[in-house]
Write a structure and sequence with these properties.
By secondary structure, the chain is α/β, with parallel strands linked by helices. The chain has a single domain, classed as Rossmann fold (3-Layer(aba) Sandwich), CATH 3.40.50. It is 34% helix and 26% strand. It has seven helices and ten strands. Helix 3 crosses helix 4, helix 3 packs parallel to helix 6 and helix 4 packs across helix 6.
């Protein structure tokens, strides 16, 4: 049974079709994404590997609707986002996307559970009613009640990343985008985080894309795609 708010049968996941993205470079433009096609179904865990500068971060930024591509389409649960206004894209991100950043970016003054509840406050929701869900989510990623009351400096790097994952899942996203989640962790903790991502992908039915440079941590994913010079293989 999934804890998502959106029924899985209404989800179609993430799709990029012929996506091209360029950046200005003096009088010319650099191609960051070159006709990228990608489809990730609900409950599927896909890793994108490749060297620095290959386009991995640009891929995530476009999938997260943070950058508009020069060409092509980005669809989230079947909705093409290219024509949406900035406000509509922001609303879609809140409703459909969960993003796990490379650095946890937790607020130093808040406990682990408060990191999630502040999102509910920003959304205008009822914080008291959300507390039980926040505590359940944190427990599901391996943080007991005592650790849920700790602030970031009292948690290990792996524990902070678990809070980061729970925070990304708090809005019941359809798509989960993960940027180098193990870069600040040792191998053992990195393996634990990737195993956790595989578990939450299936439990929550998210279409999950993880960008990584660490090829030793890909045993838990469903597919591995290679990014090279802006092309996805």
């Amino acid at each position: 049974m999934t804890t998502t708010d959106t029924p899985l049968k209404t989800r179609t996941g993430l799709a990029l079709r012929g996506v091209t993205l360029t950046y200005p470079d003096g009088e010319q433009r650099l191609t960051a994404l070159d006709g990228v096609d990608l489809a990730v179904a609900p409950g599927e865990f896909v890793a994108v590997a490749g060297p620095s500068g290959s386009g991995k971060s640009s891929l995530l930024a476009v999938a997260a609707t943070l950058l508009r591509p020069d060409g092509g389409e980005v669809l989230i649960d079947g909705q093409e986002v290219g024509a949406l206004s900035a406000a509509a894209r922001a609303a879609l991100r809140r409703a459909k996307l969960g993003i796990v950043f490379q650095q946890s970016n937790l607020l130093g003054s808040l406990t682990a559970v408060e990191q999630l509840l502040v999102l509910e406050s920003v959304r205008g929701g009822k914080v008291r009613e959300a507390r039980a869900r926040a505590e359940e989510l944190l427990a599901s990623v391996g943080l007991d009640a005592a650790k849920q009351r700790r602030r970031p400096h009292q948690l290990s790097g792996g524990e902070r990343q678990r809070v980061n994952i729970a925070r990304a899942l708090f809005g019941s996203p359809s798509v989960l985008l993960v940027d180098e989640p193990t870069s600040a962790l040792d191998h053992e903790r990195g393996e634990q985080i990737v195993a956790l991502l595989a578990e939450v992908t299936r439990t929550h039915g998210t279409a999950t894309v993880m960008v990584t440079h660490d090829r030793d941590l890909l045993g838990r994913v469903d597919r591995v795609l290679e990014m090279q010079d802006g092309r996805l293989h």
